[in-house]
Amino acid sequence: MHAPCVRVPTEEGEATRRRLADADLVAESLDIVVEDGALYVPVTDPDAVPEEYEIVERDVPERETPTTPADILGFEPSYGRLGDVVILDEDDRARAARIADAIVESNVRAETVVNRASKVKGETRVRDWDVLVGESTETVHREYGCEFALDIAEVYFSPRLATERHRVVQQVEAGERAFDMFAGVGPYAIPMAKAGAEVVATDINEAAIDYLRENAERNDVTDRITATAGTCETSSRARHGRSEVTEVRDLAADYEGWAERLVMNLPHTANEFLDAAVRLAGDECVLHYYDIQHESERYAPGEAAIRAAAEPAYDVTVETRHTVRSYAPHEYNVCLDVGLTRR
């Protein structure tokens, strides 16, 4: 079968295979080939392979079908992956435990298996988890050449948004100034810094900012990232769950007119922070504004909110109207890429 492969010297083969496997990039249905002093590792997504590796196209034999959870269970279970944590969403705990056991018995790589025990809740958007296998909810997730350490019990992170994050990061130019207003553990901020931007990142969740700082070190971008956490006890507003407003507005005063790119990935309530975004915006700025809206009117409410906040001080140009994913029945997660030009 013809497939993209990473080619490395045989002495580097095992370390390379491990690194690609950790990033879920190894094509498990295809065999690794050794030929003329080189190892050829078939990969699932050549665009996500770290840049230092050489990618070639070649014929590789198909591998014997591995044992899957479905082989053991007799049905195809639904589960997600985040690093070496496998995530279930089962209402029946006995069924969840059965699936977890099958995952352990199969060829699926997993250190921990968890089941969702609550919806996303609170300002930090974390969940409760029922740990079925393993002990730690901490893991390392890899996407598009970046590593992100995180604990799913302490921070919010969605691996399903990797393609969307990459879409935005591809627009970043070296030397520009980017501000990530709701940064989490850095899935926008880290790759923007790797692209050469100077990045300021903030989040109300202090655990997330701690991981962001660790991730900046992991990805060798500490010199291009300033990370700031909000506090939860600085004011009466903070005690009533509005510390994020206070923190972003304080930073807006410090970085007024600074940003050439703004990321606002807080889709349910980003409109509440547009006044701070406009203060942060420089003379020329691109705003990536995320929203959740009904299918009948996906973009108009966000565009109206941006215009209300930015005009007449800025000319507002909607460059891209982009549907990220389905969020709920008849509701969509969308992004507006908006150019702001000071008048």
UniProtKB/TrEMBL annotation:
GO molecular function, one term: tRNA methyltransferase activity
Name by which UniProt lists this protein: tRNA (Guanine37-N1)-methyltransferase
PANTHER family, A to Z: TRNA (GUANINE(37)-N1)-METHYLTRANSFERASE, TRNA METHYLTRANSFERASE
Cellular component, GO annotation: cytoplasm
Ranges where the SAM-dependent methyltransferase TRM5/TYW2-type domain occurs: 79-342
Keywords: Cytoplasm, Methyltransferase, S-adenosyl-L-methionine, Transferase, tRNA processing
Superkingdom to which the source organism belongs: Archaea
Any one biological process term the GO annotation gives: tRNA N1-guanine methylation
UniProt-listed CDD domains: AdoMet_MTases (cd02440)
UniProt-listed SUPFAM superfamilies: S-adenosyl-L-methionine-dependent methyltransferases (SSF53335)
